[in-house]
Amino acid sequence: MGLIMKRIFEVAPWNVVTHKLDKENKRLQESLTSLGNGYMGMRGNFEEDYSGDTLPGSYLAGVWYPDKTRVGWWKNGYPEYFGKVINAVNFIKMNFLINGSKLDLYTDKISDFTLDLDMKSAVLKRSFIVEKDGVKVKFNFERFLSVAQKELSVQKVSFENLSDDSVEIKVISSLDANVKNEDANYDEHFWEVLEITDDSIIAETKPNDFGTPRFTSGMQVGYVTGLKEIDHTVDKLETSKTFVANLESHEIGTIEKRVAVVTSRDYETVDDLRDAMEGISAKVKDVSYEELLSAHENVWDNRWNQSDIKIDGDTDAQQGMRFNLFGLFTTYSGEDSRLNIGPKGFTGEKYGGATYWDTEAFCIPVYLGVSQPEVSRNLLMYRYNQLKGAYINAERQGLKGALYPMVTFNGIECHNEWEITFEEIHRNGDIAFAIYNYTRYTGDKSFVLHEGSKMLTEMSRFWADRVHYSKRNEQYMIHGVTGPDEYENNVDNNWYTNFLARWTLKYTLQILGEVSKDQFEKLNVSKEEMDHWQDIVDKMYLPYDEDLGIFVQHDGFLDKDIEPVSSIPKDQLPINQHWSWDKILRSPYIKQGDVLQGIWDFIDDFSEREKKRNFDFYEPLTVHESSLSPAIHAVLAADLHYDQKAVALYERTARLDLDNYNNDTADGLHITSMTGGWLAMVQGFAGMRVHDDGTLSYKPFLPKKWNSYSFRQVFRGRVIEITVKENGSEFKLVSGDPLQIQVNDKPLMLK
């Protein structure tokens, strides 16, 4: 595949660890050591100031700002603003003075450096020895964002004097609102401080011109330390306390920093916010570090116990899988239906931290398998609750019904590339598919027969207005779209888009036949409307080539100069970093699965011949420069018994960020594509399928380089454990009622 790999951390089953401060790849180090607890998160930047290249970032879930859309040529229907996650008040900041000289790992002489992200307990550790002005001091840092108390950040720093003479260590610890986003227009700041004291800050996002809510955040800090407090300073944007320790030779000083972080998403007034952060601070004031850490670790133990995937014989693969699951769990835990899963999570500013169709297409299938159904239902409710915004998006294009946004925080489209925002409309089908997928997997029809039926009806109204009838061909068509393959813009009759539009209309008609009489009346669908939808289903044009036996990605695709990716010189990969956009658009190269995405979605509905012909044609043309791409190809390769190809694609998806395959992880992790490891393993290697009749089936195989693998899967009130070894597979019912499954097309009763 012509892959270029950059591996800067050691390979270990539970840890992302290095013993090198890699100044050239500092941002990459920061991305790969990010933390989060679903409520807030941060990159792995240092607590103290670092004068070299760095991208500090702390982010609060659901807190964002509408930045004015800036385009050279305004088109009717453009969103007024581009929504972006904003850098939060820096609550982890701690600087250190050694005999009055500031610690700076970019310029100071350091040794014995260790940076260690412990994925099992979600703790980031760092240690080093610094030699400065004739003295030597060893520092140890630990920090975690509690999952037992989601509004709590905990840090612990210790320092040991390794010199013969005494050393003065000053710690200047701050809450700092003087922050900005690297990508902000005109270096603007987004926070206005409302209140500041010697231990707290309450700040509000600055006013905007778009009527979107302003957010307020409150942070209160408390310390546990034997160090002496000697000063505190409060200015307009920052509050700091200074502590001092005079350490004799081999004496150790320690300071713990605990910050309560609350936002106006949960508390209406500033008084409520203040009461909340003071209450949390008081609650943890007398609790030991060990107790706080233990409560946090217990939650993580339960998570891993339910969802860990164990791989014996390949530590690279094991680390990659756990890193994927860790990234998902640190981003989204499912308790809050107001939240969703941003493509970068809490690990960077790119993509604005907003919601994309990644959630429905890639995340929901994984969360169905690793968590209780309520988590996935909350993701569907997120879309239902934003239906009003979807009406506005359709209306701005002069169309009926509801068009869900490509990028959003609140249901209103806030992305400003025309080819994506207004042409990549397949997301309406992906959201419909997620409703079907949830219903099929869980057996729970309560959503689809109520909220889901409303969503499906309004999305179908959009599709029925967006298609046009070609009198010449006597078929319905959809022109001017972009499919999942964003290296093809403004095309006609993208197969995937047409296929999903037709399927959505068909599925909606089916559900309308199942809803209650009251619900049907509320939906107000006329017989004429339903007849029209059926006509579209019957006459939708789906491009197909008889000679090749393939579904054609879109009209004109086969007129390109079809050459495989292997013909591209390796020094020109990835093409999105070496070629002009014009050259990419004219090429046959596919960013991510497009036709194959549709086949993956509905894998039971295609024959072995159809799957093979399409995979053999399209996969060699796919550059996988979307992080979402390798996983679905791994599943299809496994389904076709292309075992070696499936393993190669698994390795690419599971270690995409750890090995920086697309040379863009320095911006932040690819959180939504961290679903890829689970999908490739469970749907791919284990061949897990849930069929329309609710039957759960498997067709497992073991990659040659592995000794075994095992995983647990949540399914309809049960937890099932699957182990695949060289001599066969074992299936165990861990909890729940007996269940009959199929293994290699034969029934097996789990008791």
State the separation between the terminal residues, measured CA to CA: 44 Å
The named CATH superfamily of the domain at 40-52 and 61-283 and 290-306: Glycoside hydrolase, family 65, N-terminal domain
CATH C-level category of the domain at 40-52 and 61-283 and 290-306? Mainly Beta
Oligomer: single chain
**What is the number of helical segments per DSSP (H or I, 4+ residues)?**
19
Strand order in the sheet with the most strands: 1-9-10-11-12-19-16-15-14
Radius of gyration: 27 Å
Can you give the mean pLDDT? 95
Quick structural summary:
It is built from 19 helices and 31 strands.
Spell out the key features of this protein.
Beta-galactosidase, Chain A, domain 5, Maltose phosphorylase, 5-stranded antiparallel β-sheet, 751 residues, 9-stranded antiparallel β-sheet, 19 helices, Maltose phosphorylase, domain 3, alpha+beta
Describe the structure.
With 751 residues, the chain is α+β, with helices and mostly antiparallel strands. Among the domains are: 1-33 and 311-352 and 630-750, Maltose phosphorylase, domain 3 (Sandwich); 40-52 and 61-283 and 290-306, Glycoside hydrolase, family 65, N-terminal domain (Beta-galactosidase, Chain A, domain 5, Distorted Sandwich). The chain is built from 19 helices and 31 strands. The strands form 8 sheets. The protein has a 9-stranded antiparallel sheet. A 5-stranded antiparallel sheet has the order 8-7-13-18-17, with no helix packed on it. Strands 20-27-28-29 form a 4-stranded antiparallel sheet. This is Maltose phosphorylase. GO terms for molecular function: carbohydrate binding; glycosyltransferase activity; hydrolase activity, hydrolyzing O-glycosyl compounds. It holds the Pfam family Glyco_hydro_65m. Residues 688-748 form the Glycoside hydrolase family 65 C-terminal domain.
